[in-house]
Write a structure and sequence with these properties.
The structure is a homodimer. Chain A has eight helices and nine strands. By secondary structure, chain A is α/β, with parallel strands linked by helices. Chain A is elongated. Chains A and B meet through helix 1, helix 5, strand 8 and helix 8 of A and helix 1, helix 5, strand 8 and helix 8 of B.
Chain lengths: ~210, ~210
């Protein structure tokens, strides 16, 4: 099975299952049924079994899934065993909050392989200063920083007008995944993924249903 | 057509169309074709026509859509003409950044009807202080603040362990939509919507495909 064929909704649920399983490990639970796992993840038990069956056979009839082993398997499937260096582009208010949050999480969360390795900003007053131990670099140093730190994911927290330019440059230097917080629709070549997370757009979607 | 029947993906695209149209208004454009609109929104022209047809007839054969009128219509459909008071729960690093961002946006973006009307935190050192002109209140004052400000949407930026409790309380006092930034799966009664936006979970989804 190629990764591209797995629907994003399945991966999104696998991430939730992993979180539930880690909580269960902490609580000292050894086995969990698909019904329990589903209940805590907000889906039904058939969906849990179907999702997990896409990746292998993990449970035992009548016993359930072994909590710790399944957590490790899902972490491996999701690629948590490989390092995922991140660059944050734009260290304004939102970029700073996101960076601090991610830096603190990567230090405290076991099995969390995302590490903020680079911060970029265009403000000369910020360049050279540190945030959580990471130095803020100018965007012109992107080629050398990306090569040195092997950046895999870019978080876009620059103003909308600058977002496409930053992404174009980052794509040239090998970044294949973006989490976009700028209120702009980004264009990327095939094989590059963008997940957008503009708060105001999500609010507008939510408001429609209220 | 009841609002509940409209798929969230359609609404999500309508929000993007609106943004493209507002840019086109600013650029002085009078008419736009479904192909142009689609190109800027990242979808094909057939999808644009199908989405818009769910809500009415807006274009003229051979001329395209009138930019300004269509923008107004979509804003009305999305409910931007009604006020949407927001409360932010948890004024930590992320909550502060989100609040500042939303407060600044609501002042500058024309037609943006989301207003941060209340901020809640449990830290006695923060209660009574102001952020962007909004006073931080203790969660115990939620009933009176929700009633006074007619809060419609809650943004959850509290730690994971506190999130469900805060949401349960907010639901009791009439909040029907939540944007959740806490790394927790929230349970809500029917008729209440939660959109989750936990950065680490989105990163985990993204990483799978890299």
């Amino acid at each position: 099975m190629t990764r591209d064929r797995v629907p994003v909704v399945v991966i999104s649920r696998m991430v939730v299952y992993l979180r539930v399983l880690r909580d269960a490990v902490t609580a000292g639970k050894e086995y969990i049924s698909s019904a329990e796992l589903g209940d805590m993840a907000g889906v039904n038990s058939a969906q849990v079994r179907k999702d997990l069956a896409m990746f292998g056979e993990f449970g035992k009839q009548g016993v359930g899934y072994p909590v710790e082993t399944l957590a490790e398997e899902i972490a491996r499937i999701l690629g948590h065993d490989t390092d995922m260096p991140i660059a944050v582009f734009g260290v304004g208010e939102l970029g700073t909050a996101l960076s601090r949050y991610l830096i603190s999480r990567s230090k405290t969360l076991e099995g969390f392989s995302f590490t903020v390795k680079a911060l970029f900003d265009s403000d000369p007053a910020k360049i050279g200063t540190e945030l959580g131990g990471v130095v803020i670099s100018p965007v012109c140093s992107l080629p050398e920083v990306c090569a040195r730190e092997n950046i895999r994911i870019g978080i876009i927290a620059v103003p909308a007008a600058a977002a496409q330019e930053v992404v174009d440059l980052a794509v040239v230097y090998g970044i294949k995944g973006f989490l976009n917080f700028a209120p702009a629709k980004l264009k990327v070549p095939p094989g590059v993924r963008v997940v957008s997370s503009d708060v105001t757009m999500v609010l507008q979607e939510l408001a429609f249903y209220l």
